[in-house]
Structures are given as C-alpha cells and as structure tokens.
Write a structure and sequence with these properties.
The protein is of the alpha/beta class and 338 residues long. It has a single domain, classed as 3-Layer(aba) Sandwich (Rossmann fold). The chain has ten helices and twelve strands. Helix 5 packs across helix 9. It is globular. It binds nicotinamide-adenine-dinucleotide. Residues 8, 10-14, 32-36, 53-55, 71-73, 75, 90, 113, 115, 166, 168-169, 175, 177, 180, 314 line the site of nicotinamide-adenine-dinucleotide.
Length: 338
C-alpha cells in the first residue's frame, strides 16, 4: 500500500479526499490542526490522524511516504485580508517548507492545490492558460503564487512537484463550506427563496465539483511523474467557465418555486476564465456541471437538515475560535473554568 500524506485533511476538500483515497487502497496520514473537528474524518484502518500544525512538521514525518497532497491553508480571500501574517506563514512559507522536507525525505510527488484566482482579473475576451501572466489581487492569491513559484523550483529527477489550479469548488462535504459560491447560492435558494450575487455579477469565475477536484488529485498520484513533474494544470472542464450571473441562472433553474436574485457588496474585481486544454491532454475529463452539483446539494441539505452556522463560514469560525480562546485563557485557573 502506498502511503500518502494529506495536510488540511479535516477541511472541506480534505475530508472527502481522505474518504475517496482510503477506498482506493492507500494508507493515509491525515494531518491537520482540526480546527473544524476531527469527527469530520471517516474512521478506517488505513487512515491515521495526526493533529499537528504544518509549520511544525519535521523530516521524520515524511519518511517512506510516496506522495504529499498539501491542502492545509487559510482557504479564502477574506480570511487572508484579515489574518495577513498567518496567511503568508501557512499558505506560502509552511507549504514551501513541507515541499522541501518531502524532497529531502525522498517523497516522490508533491501536489499543491492552488487556485485559478491567481489570474486575478483578465480582459474580457481572453482565456488564461497556465502560461498566462498571473495578477494576484489578494493576500490569499499572492501567497498561493509565491508558493507555486518556489515549490516548482524544487523539481529534480527524483522529486515531482505539481500545481493544480482549481476553480471555486462546490459540492457536499462533511466539513461543509457555505462561503463558496455554488454551495451558498444553492443554500439560499433552497432555504430562503433567494440568490445573493456579489456585485455586479458579470465577473467570470470557473467552478469545479469537489469529486472532480479529488479525481484530478488522484490522477496526479497515479500518472507517471515524467508527464507532470514541474507542471501547472488548470483543473476543470468546458462547462465550468461561467459568469456569476450565469451561475445564478443555472442554479435558479433547478427550483420549481419563485427565486429572487439580489445584489450585494462592492464590485468584485476578480474575473477570469481559464483554459482546461492542458489537463484534458492527460485524459482528464470532469464529470459534473454546477447544475448537477446544485441538485445534489439540495438533496444533502434536506437529508442532513443543514442549517447555516458560523462553522460553515471559514472566517467566522476562525474569528470565533480566537474570541473564545481569549475568553477562556482569561477565565481559567489551572486550565479549569469551574
Ligand atoms: N475550496 C475551494 O474552492 C478551493 C479552490 C481553490 C483552491 N483551494 C485550496 O484547497 C485547499 C483546501 O481548501 P478547503 O476548501 O478544503 O479549505 P478548508 O478551510 O476547509 O480546509 C483547510 C484545512 O487546513 C487546516 N489548517 C489550516 N491551517 C493549518 C495549519 N497551520 N496546520 C495544519 N492544518 C491547518 C484547517 O484546519 C482545515 O481543516 C486550500 O489550500 C485552498 O486554498 C480551495
């Protein structure tokens, strides 16, 4: 059984990736701070949990490991604008360190799930392929871009780093995120008969089903390293390039009831469509479109009786943890409250 480290294993993509790969007969070392709770991870014999911070990992963690999928990060733009130092420390410096340790320990493959948001804003009639000049507009995408640049330079005969630039991911996960556009629009339409659109809706945003994101990672594990080493791939398929207005229309169309669309916030400057030709040339094809994902989400929202809470909104959850950490430290004596 090949051993694989997944960092950020307790996160939105992580806990579904752990489930998927554990069924493919790998041994999984699931590393995470578990900010969202360890119970989100499937319990199986071939999954070992390691509660740690990626900033603290040592070379011994990477011995006899075949591949690392490095998901741990502060995972969106608004968190990166608020927790600036931590975003650069974790998303850039720690991930670069993880890649260096992996290389030193003899790990064969290192997979970095990066983001199409690194393209920032591109002109209307253009579609970014992987060589397109990056224009990261936020701390989150700047940290991603810095990590990509440094990590790709580690490529050697025996060490294969590969970058997957994902669109905004959607679909159900045990650690559900309702701060992702398709998940949120579908939730609001289902529960509140409305779809919120960050102004002005013309911004273009590729999306990606969580299973398709996971399948791309699995493909990188299976494929011969010479085909991918030192390469960047945009992950998605043709149906994944939609504007936010188009996305809202698609999601609205799956409901039989009346849905109101409303606009909020400041104009979103991030806008990009990307080309998926390169990953297609490896034989990769997406299975899902946003409409399929929205239908699946509605079923799961009903079945699991999902109610929006701070835990589903990444930044709110980190703010809560900080708030209570401070309160508890002040109130506790000898680590006890009462
Ligand atoms: N979800 C998307 O739409 C999307 C799109 C493109 C790229 N990505 C990237 O994929 C990765 C996973 O995203 P996600 O949506 O699952 O996010 P998430 O926030 O749900 O998961 C991130 C996980 O990392 C853990 N973590 C954070 N800091 C850590 C640290 N210092 N040490 C150990 N663990 C730590 C958290 O506890 C969490 O479980 C991130 O790198 C993100 O930038 C996600």
């Amino acid at each position: 059984m090949k051993k694989i480290i997944i960092t950020g294993a307790g996160g939105y993509i992580g806990c579904e990736l752990v489930k998927y790969l554990s069924k493919k007969k790998y041994e999984i070392i699931a590393i995470d701070r578990y900010f969202f709770g360890e119970e989100k991870i499937l319990k199986r014999k071939n999954i070992k949990l390691l509660k740690d911070d990626i900033r603290n990992l040592k070379i011994k963690n990477f011995k006899k490991i075949y591949a690392v999928i490095d998901l741990a990060a502060l995972s969106n733009d608004i968190t990166g604008e608020k927790y600036v130092r931590q975003t650069f420390d974790i998303n850039f410096k720690a991930r670069y360190k993880v890649a260096q340790l992996a290389k030193k320990a003899g790990v064969e493959k290192y997979i970095l799930p990066s983001s199409c948001s690194n393209y920032g804003r591109i002109s209307k009639n253009q579609i970014a392929d992987e060589k397109y000049k990056l224009n990261p507009l936020t701390n989150y995408s700047k940290a991603n871009t810095m990590a990509e640049n440094k990590i790709l330079k580690l490529k050697s005969k025996n060490f294969c780093p590969v970058i997957l630039r994902q669109g905004t991911v959607y679909g159900f996960s045990n650690r559900l995120r309702l701060d992702l556009v398709v998940n949120r629009m579908t939730y609001e339409a289902f529960k509140n008969n409305r779809i919120p659109i960050l102004k002005d809706g013309s911004q273009r945003r590729p999306t990606l089903h969580i299973i398709d994101a996971i399948r791309a990672m699995h493909m990188m594990i299976k494929i011969h390293k010479d085909k991918i080493s030192g390469e960047i791939f945009n992950v998605g398929g043709d149906g994944n390039n939609l504007s936010i207005n188009q996305l809202a229309k698609e999601i609205k169309s799956i409901f039989k009831k009346k849905i109101k669309i409303f606009y909020y916030g400041e104009k979103d400057l991030r806008s990009y469509f990307v080309s998926f030709k390169k990953i297609k040339s490896l034989g990769y094809k997406t299975l899902y479109k946003p409409k399929d994902g929205a239908k699946q989400l509605v079923k799961m929202y009903k079945k699991k009786k999902i109610i929006m809470s701070d835990e589903n909104i990444t930044l709110k959850w980190y703010d809560n943890l900080n708030y209570w950490n401070d309160k508890i430290r002040k109130a506790a004596i000898n680590n006890k409250i009462l």
